[in-house]
Amino acid sequence: MSAVIAHRAPLARPSEPVEPVGPPPPTEVAREAPAAGSTRLVNHWVEMAEWRNDRQLWAFYLTFGRCPELQAYVQRQQSLLSGLPGLDLVQAPWLHLTVQGVAFVDSVDGDAFQTLTTAGANVAASAPTLELLVGMAVAEDDSVTMPVRVNGGMTALRDELRDAARGALNGAALYALPEPVGGFAPHITIAYARDDSPTVEEVRARLDGFLEPPLRLEVGSLSLVRLCRGSSRWWWTEEYPLQLTAVEHPDQPVGPGPHVDGAGPSD
Question: Which of 194, 201, 245, 248 is 20 to 30 A from residue 18's alpha carbon, by CA?
Answer without folding.
Answer: 201
